[in-house]
């Protein structure tokens, strides 16, 4: 990775452009993220909230790494990005069963980043000879940098795969994967140390904080098991930031107060091997809903979000439905929206709704009357639509 050093004037132009790239516009980052997570080949990454978040972090890390190097030494070759984000995603990709073909996302990101860099370069000079030299050096630098970084991630993935295919965790993960795929597995219970002929509640336990202590995830798995009963849970490391957990029975309230970085998505309880699979899929659906809607809720169950998960598959359509159905109620104070939502949940019984909200019945009625004035049409006869719209709003961040 070498080339003739550029002229002092071109080095100065590259340095100026790199300073711009060090403070990227939000729409630039959004464009890179959208490209790296688009397409059928990248669906396994885009549909996984933890992998998608790790990809976005890596995109930013790579952009800032290259820009900072060119502020320090404009036009010089940039070594592979050896910071935490790109190396951490190698571990997560392997633990999700993905191979090096997933790294194609970085080639797509390179193309978008190069196009954005051309825009920056064209704003630096009107001299065509200078611009030609800037682009010749910098585009070669971007390509070589991405090559080096992808190679480093690929090497780390091979090392992670070698480590993962040895030891008890590898056997447990392989057994769980076979069960989730519907394959019959002889001796699965003894391999897992977990009974399959019982009622299961699955959970996805994860963190959005890249600096979180991973031991918090394991403590959350233990808290789930304690809330469900005396049996030990089954916990599988799905990625550095995610655990897949199964417990027997139905967990009561799960305390996450001492685990501030942890989020938990629960599946619906279900029985037997089929229930083992179905509850896990429910938990994944719940997690993806929370992330898709930008919800800040740290604990959610499938039973709470099933309707919202179904009606928000088309996110843009769901947004239009909420606005069209609620009108000005969409932006009303929270206590007004909560009054209507609770009133509908209590089958339009004002006394029960007031008791559930710990408020006086007359106060509730005043809030309902105000809501009726804000709605495009009266609540009477439209409770189902209004209730669905309010549920979407409740879970949306």
Automatic annotation (TrEMBL):
InterPro entries: CdaR-like_regulators, CdaR_GGDEF, PucR_C-HTH_dom, PucR_C-HTH_sf. Residues 189-288 form the CdaR GGDEF-like domain. It holds the Pfam family HTH_30. Residues 338-389 form the PucR C-terminal helix-turn-helix domain. It comes from the Bacteria. Belongs to the CdaR family. PANTHER family: CARBOHYDRATE DIACID REGULATOR (PTHR33744), DNA-BINDING TRANSCRIPTIONAL ACTIVATOR ADER (PTHR33744:SF1). This is DNA-binding PucR family transcriptional regulator. The lineage of its organism: Bacteria, Bacillati, Actinomycetota, Actinomycetes, Micromonosporales.
